[in-house]
């Protein structure tokens, strides 16, 4: 497990094993929320920084960025520690800034309209790499400690979020935690192509975020042609799972259709 995906309780346990007092966990967690590496955690003793630096971190760095002159939208190319690249976007609205983040390197769903599936799924991201995309954007925006430059999050970058469900659930618990980024579940949207069993588990275990279903066709024949997942999970089952989510959570389900 990576430092960047530890909860406060897990950090407290880790640091207790290192013989550290409990307040050190709050210090480390505050740095991790901003994506800061242990070597740069300036209020920690050098010995502790060195011990933390020896652990897997899971850094996300900005490799490239492009800014739209029209509306200030920023497109990011993020570099992961293993050399893989993923994309993200910061969109500016009157109500706040929305970060669109990736959940996988590539995708295996094979949707005809999506470029991220062209080379298949290289690997899934861990929760810390999802948090790291937000932290990298906030550093790029110059957000001071304790202030959020990102107020809304959509999991609609490369990858199928529910094909990486364990890590997405951990990410959602961490990003909404009061001691973490404190982003409200109501300000988070998770997109899916319609993996019905995972939708049902998501209903039972996830914070009550907005669920967005990529439908893109009104009949099974068309949808199966452009979205291979429909051959396993036809429209009727996807709609039942979506209704189940809405009934269980009281949250709306958005259907994406282009």
UniProtKB/TrEMBL annotation:
Superkingdom in the source lineage: Bacteria
Cofactor: [4Fe-4S] cluster
Keywords of the record: 4Fe-4S, Iron, Iron-sulfur, Metal-binding, rRNA processing, S-adenosyl-L-methionine
One Gene Ontology term of the molecular function aspect: catalytic activity
Domain Radical SAM core, first and last residues per copy: 93-258
PANTHER family xrefs: 23S RRNA METHYLTRANSFERASE, RADICAL SAM CORE DOMAIN-CONTAINING PROTEIN
The protein's name in its UniProt record: Radical SAM protein
SUPFAM superfamilies noted in UniProt: Radical SAM enzymes
Pfam family, one: Radical_SAM
Record organism: Candidatus Aphodomorpha intestinavium
A Gene Ontology biological process term: rRNA base methylation
């Amino acid at each position: 497990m990576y430092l960047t995906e530890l909860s406060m309780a897990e950090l407290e346990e880790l640091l207790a094993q290192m013989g550290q007092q409990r307040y050190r966990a709050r210090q480390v967690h505050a740095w991790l929320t901003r994506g800061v590496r242990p070597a740069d955690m300036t209020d920690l003793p050098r010995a502790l920084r060195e011990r933390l630096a020896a652990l897997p971190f899971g850094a996300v760095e900005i490799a490239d960025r492009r800014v739209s002159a029209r509306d200030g939208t920023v497109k990011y190319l993020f570099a992961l520690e293993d050399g893989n690249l993923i994309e993200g976007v910061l969109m500016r609205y009157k109500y706040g800034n929305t970060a669109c983040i990736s959940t996988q390197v590539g995708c295996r769903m094979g949707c005809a309209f999506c470029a991220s599936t062209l080379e298949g799924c290289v690997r899934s991201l861990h929760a810390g790499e999802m948090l790291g995309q937000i932290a990298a954007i906030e550093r790029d925006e110059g957000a001071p400690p304790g202030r959020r430059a990102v107020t809304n999050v959509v999991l609609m970058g490369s990858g199928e979020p529910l094909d990486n469900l364990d890590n997405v659930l951990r990410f959602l618990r961490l990003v909404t935690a009061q001691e973490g980024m404190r982003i409200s579940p109501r300000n988070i949207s998770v997109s899916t192509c319609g993996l019905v069993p995972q939708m049902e588990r998501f209903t039972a275990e996830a914070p009550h975020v907005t669920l967005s279903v990529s439908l893109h066709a009104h009949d099974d024949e068309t949808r199966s042609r452009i979205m291979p997942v429909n051959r396993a999970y036809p429209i009727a089952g996807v709609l039942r799972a979506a209704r189940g989510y809405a009934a269980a959570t009281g949250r709306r389900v958005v259907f994406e259709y282009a």
